[in-house]
Amino acid sequence: xxxxxxxxxxxxxxxxxxxxxxxxxxxxxxxxxxxxxxxxxxxxxxxxxxxxxxxxxxxxxxxxxxxxxxxxxxxxxxxxxxxxxxxxxxxxxxxxxxxxxxxxxxxxxxxxxxxxxxxxxxxxxxxxxxxxxxxxxxxxxxxxxxxxxxxxxxxxxxxxxxxxxxxxxxxxxxxxxxxxxxxxxxxxxxxxxxxxxxxxxxxxxxxxxxxxxxxxxxxxxxxxxxxxxxxxxxxxxxxxxxxxxxxxxxxxxxxxxxxxxxxxxxxxxxxxxxxxxxxxxxxxxxxxxxxxxxxxxxxxxxxxxxxxxxxxxxxxxxxxxxxxxxxxxxxxxxxxxxxxxxxxxxxxxxxxxxxxxxxxxxxxxxxxxxxxxxxxxxxxxxxxxxxxxxxxxxxxxxxxxxxxxxxxxxxxxxxxxxxxxxxxxxxxxxxxxxxxxxxxxxxxxxxxxxxxxxxxxxxxxxx
Length: 463
Description:
Layout: E1 9-13, H1 16-19, H2 61-75, E2 79-83, H3 86-89, H4 100-115, E3 119-125, H5 131-137, H6 144-160, E4 166-170, H7 180-184, H8 192-216, E5 221-227, E6 231-233, H9 238-260, H10 265-273, H11 284-289, E7 295-299, E8 304-306, E9 314-316, E10 319-321, E11 328-329, E12 335-336, H12 338-352, E13 356-360, H13 378-397, E14 401-407, E15 427-429, E16 441-443, H14 445-455
Parallel strand pairs: 1-2, 1-14, 2-3, 3-4, 4-5, 5-7, 6-8, 7-13, 13-14
Antiparallel strand pairs: 9-10, 11-12, 15-16
Helix pairs in contact: 6-8, 12-13
């Protein structure tokens, strides 16, 4: 009873802008991520003023992917979640014809995965978009981006329809509320009105992509991806319960639209009470209603608490919340809450009654290499073990769970801080915050632990 489903997908998750490097090779254009050399900060700069950053090379997955995929196969992966860099396909975003060198690169990458028995699980836009679309159109604030994204989606669906059967549209789409430049290409001081208008355009693009995928690749499945920012009431005071409901609604809104195809009543009330008017055109609501995703995917790193009383909030994974006195924190101040994953899985399945997929979960920590050359990351093993045990419990509760791809199976550049020292991987990469290092890959203790978990289909997990 404690094993995972027979066809469960085991693997890891990476993002092009955090692993590939080669930021200006083979015709690739400059992305919004390339404009953030120090992580999630408002750039307020031109491309000419852009500073070099650690992401320019990252871990050089662009050239080293055969070696890394071989290591993933050694662990037993049957799935790898990755993203296509939009700027490798359409460097400026508005071209009529794609960049063949970019398309050919992902052909080789997907072929390599297939040769090693791994299913590619592809995100169309993972925290990046062509920076030229920000410069020339104002990012997702412009409806024109719907057309450009549709062209990009159609291009990759048609090109890879025989190689990729699992797709996601926008990574952590609700992050736009916390990091507008990363999410929708707006400056960090953009108004709520501007952000929600841009989000409307992105939701329409999401619907177009869902419908295109169903048309072009009928045997594929396409899902959405939420930042699973689960909030508990800080106390049993009904005001705190309502505060938590409000906080959860802020991100569940995206799942509601992408699944149910309409703006929920609670968001319409929020818009009314905050003076937000979404400019909709004829056919917008019909488009949203036509495109329900096939499954719900999400990241889960930590939970938070919400209170009706003004209290000091702390930030973990960009999202702020009232600290939970019952939970311990990671080195980066994120609350560690494995049971929250079971709560969230049941919560989402009860709400949507669609298959779920945990596409990000992991522990960022400073790893030390011993004099013998080993990395003993028992803290990471404990974190992942405890979360996977709770995923098992949710399956026993009746949740339909498709798979688990832990974040950063190989060390990569952290999105929020652009650090290498915030390591997630089962595989150590010899690169450091100052850019030094050989890029050598080395197996950590967790590498062999995850290998055993996959081989045993979860039977080796410790309860």
